[in-house]
């Protein structure tokens, strides 16, 4: 198993007085957090503070992810803003169920938390650009690169009778 590059040893902080603070600057050109999440780049500063309950991690991280546009399926670079604000309990047995814990060895792996927060910050609908034209429904051509050549007035024969209503003026107008 490959160790995470967002795994930090805070053993020294566990031995320090309450209120002791350490700042850690992150500057990764690219970091793979899991099979489905790669952040490029990941920059920012995290602050680790020794508290009576463990280590409090806070910070602001900035990054971007390469995703697929929902309209044209081209690559879309999406900015990601991550706000860390978590308490890691120590000793681990005092942690409420489901809360983060500092390992017995003093290690904290921030990768799962950063992955979760980065995914939560993504928009529901990813677009390569706001005016993306998408793909032609007939031939599948990318309409951002120009017209596809499909006939524009290709009407389903079942609706041909309705087209005549559009061409004739309605009485009383």
Largest sheet: 4 strands, antiparallel
Task: Report the uncertain regions.
Answer: none
Strand segment tally: 8
Order of adjacent strands in the largest pleated sheet? 2-5-6-7
Radius of gyration: 26 Å
> How far is the first residue's CA from the last residue's CA?
74 Å
What percent of residues are in strands? 25-35%
Order of helices and strands: EHEEEEEEEHH
Mean pLDDT: 89
The percent of residues in helical segments reads: 10-25%
Q: List the domain count as a whole number.
A: 2
- Counting DSSP H or I runs of 4 or more residues, the number of helices is 3
The global form is: elongated
Class per helix and strand makeup: mainly beta
What does this structure look like?
With 173 residues, this protein is mainly beta. It has helices spanning 11-14, 111-120, 160-167, and strands spanning 7-9, 21-28, 31-34, 37-39, 42-50, 54-68, 75-89, 107-109. The protein has a four-stranded antiparallel sheet with strand order 2-5-6-7, covered by helices on one side. A hairpin with a 3-residue loop joins strand 5 and strand 6. The longest helix has 10 residues, at 111-120.
Helix-strand blueprint:
Blueprint: E1 7-9, H1 11-14, E2 21-28, E3 31-34, E4 37-39, E5 42-50, E6 54-68, E7 75-89, E8 107-109, H2 111-120, H3 160-167
Antiparallel strand pairs: 1-8, 2-5, 3-4, 5-6, 6-7
Brief characterization of the structure:
With 173 residues, the chain is mostly beta strands. The chain contains three helices and eight strands, in the order βαβββββββαα. The protein has helices at 11-14, 111-120, 160-167, and strands at residues 7-9, 21-28, 31-34, 37-39, 42-50, 54-68, 75-89, 107-109.
């Amino acid at each position: 198993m490959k160790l995470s590059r967002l795994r930090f040893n805070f053993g020294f902080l566990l031995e320090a007085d309450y209120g002791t603070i350490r700042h850690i600057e992150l500057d990764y050109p690219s970091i793979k957090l899991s099979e489905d999440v790669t952040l490029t780049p990941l920059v920012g500063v995290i602050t680790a503070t020794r508290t009576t309950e463990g280590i409090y991690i806070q910070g602001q991280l900035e990054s971007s992810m390469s995703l697929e546009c929902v309209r044209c399926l081209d690559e879309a670079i999406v900015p990601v803003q991550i706000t860390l604000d978590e308490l890691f309990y120590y000793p681990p047995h005092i942690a409420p169920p489901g809360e983060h814990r500092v390992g017995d060895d003093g290690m904290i792996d921030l990768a799962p938390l950063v992955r979760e927060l980065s995914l939560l910050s993504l928009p529901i609908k990813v677009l390569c650009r706001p005016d993306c034209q998408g793909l032609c429904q007939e031939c599948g051509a990318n309409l951002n690169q120009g017209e596809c050549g499909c006939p524009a007035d290709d009407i389903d024969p079942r609706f041909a009778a309705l087209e005549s209503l559009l061409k004739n003026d309605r009485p009383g107008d």
